Amino acid sequence: MSATSETQRMEKIVSLCKRRGFIFQSSEIYGGLNGVWDYGPLGVELKRNLKNYWWRVVVHERDDVVGMDGSILTHPAVLRASGHVEGFSDLLVDCRTCKSRWRADQVVGKKGARQCPRCGSKDLTEPREFNLMLETHIGSIDPRSTSTYAESAASLTSVAVPSDPSVGGPIRATRSENQPSDVMHPAGEQIALVYLRPETAQSIFVQFKNILEVSRKKLPFGIAQIGKAFRNEINPRNFTFRSREFEQMELEYFCRPVQGMELLQYWKEERLKFYENIGIPRSKLHVLNVPDMERAFYSKGTYDIEYDFPFGRQELEGVAYRTDYDLSQHQKASGKSLEYFDEETKQRFVPHVVEPSAGVDRTVLALICEAYSEDQAADEKGKMETRVVLRFHPRIAPVKCGIFPLLKNNPQLVARAKEIVDLLRPHMTVFYDESGAIGRRYRRQDEVGTPFGVTVDFETLGEKNAALRDTVTLRERDSMKQERVKISDLLQILLTRIA
Ligand SMILES: [Zn+2]
Known about the structure:
The chain has helices at 3-19, 41-60, 76-81, 84-87, 146-156, 201-206, 208-215, 260-277, 325-334, 360-371, 411-424, 438-447, 487-498; strands spanning 23-25, 37-39, 65-67, 73-74, 89-94, 101-103, 128-131, 134-138, 161-164, 169-171, 182-184, 190-196, 221-230, 245-255, 285-289, 301-309, 312-323, 340-342, 347-349, 352-359, 372-378, 384-390, 401-405, 430-432, 452-456, 471-476, 482-486. The protein has 499 residues and is α+β, with helices and mostly antiparallel strands. Among the domains are: 3-72 and 199-368, Bira Bifunctional Protein, Domain 2 (BirA Bifunctional Protein, domain 2, 2-Layer Sandwich); 399-498, 3-Layer(aba) Sandwich (Rossmann fold). A hairpin with a 5-residue loop joins strand 21 and strand 22. Helix 2 (41-60) crosses helix 10.
């Protein structure tokens, strides 16, 4: 498809997401907060279905993985040891002409010349390091002393504050290695700099010893986590793809050094299967074997799993063999042993780790992009019209079944339809709709990706043919085919199809 039609396709997707309640701009009524998004009633169901399915296959269906849920607020020592305080940065470039700000890799124009993507100016600053971590402070802060506080906070970030001519040079923070950097608040209470975690992985490494002890797992085994992470992206873009607040699904799979490369291949294949099982075909996924030069120095192998978004091929997940880098760093910095004792060989060593790390929001976006389609369907009078349909895999669809009485002013039809709602609701998400022509009700559910529709009609009441009493029509979204099924079989049929 051409670039223009792909741009139009993306615009339609963004518009549908807002119109039908999948994704909204955060703080929209105040003009929006850049790079931050809220999920509406249907978006949250889709996201939960994705996370639940990941948790099911990565944790519940395996003997060798346990879960955890770590805190977002993170001790600075953790992120110093992991290398984030020093090195978690992007190169930043400012355009002097239009004052826009870019990641250095975004300003490479034609023939390699650096050029502002917005105004075309070549008057750009030299690239400089910009740390992507978001900071906050714990301890009560007295709003009456904001100026004093701001000064303390500035010194804590260890960024030079503007020179004070009376002092004669930039003021720099001093802080001890393993304590949260704290200052005495004027009121006498300590306030301390902490970070909003840039990835969920570090809390897994830091809790490795505790979890090893309580779970009594033997290598190889994994610890899984789903949760929020934060990156102060220089230039959030492509809808929810590059956001400042996002959710990750991460597994740290610990092993013996000799198993690392083999497990890297194993997890790459497992993860590809996962995407196929939620409705992203293998043909739209690409595995990038990250070359030596671009890999983190400690990684012995990394695969990026990429998806063809309308805005280009982009990473959904990284599967990385991180060796013993993280645990060794934390062992060194904390002074606590993070070794594993092998009872068979009587050896002690720091385990290696393979990490499949997936983005929840990116995958949700990929699911919506993949599902979006338009086709032709007949309206009430048999005239063909364009139908917008989200072809979600039934497993992840936000609503599983629409339930419709043929007429809303017939108490018997309405009563039977509501009985079916009560029958299905304990087992799946359902949506009851009695308003408008039946064709319009189907369309509304097609547009949000509901895979099945049940219609209660006069046949259900047995008025024309006693043999059809207590049956309903079951309509399938993609084929629009309808079949007549017994109400008593309905739950089992649907459970099989949405499993
Ligand atoms: Zn510019």
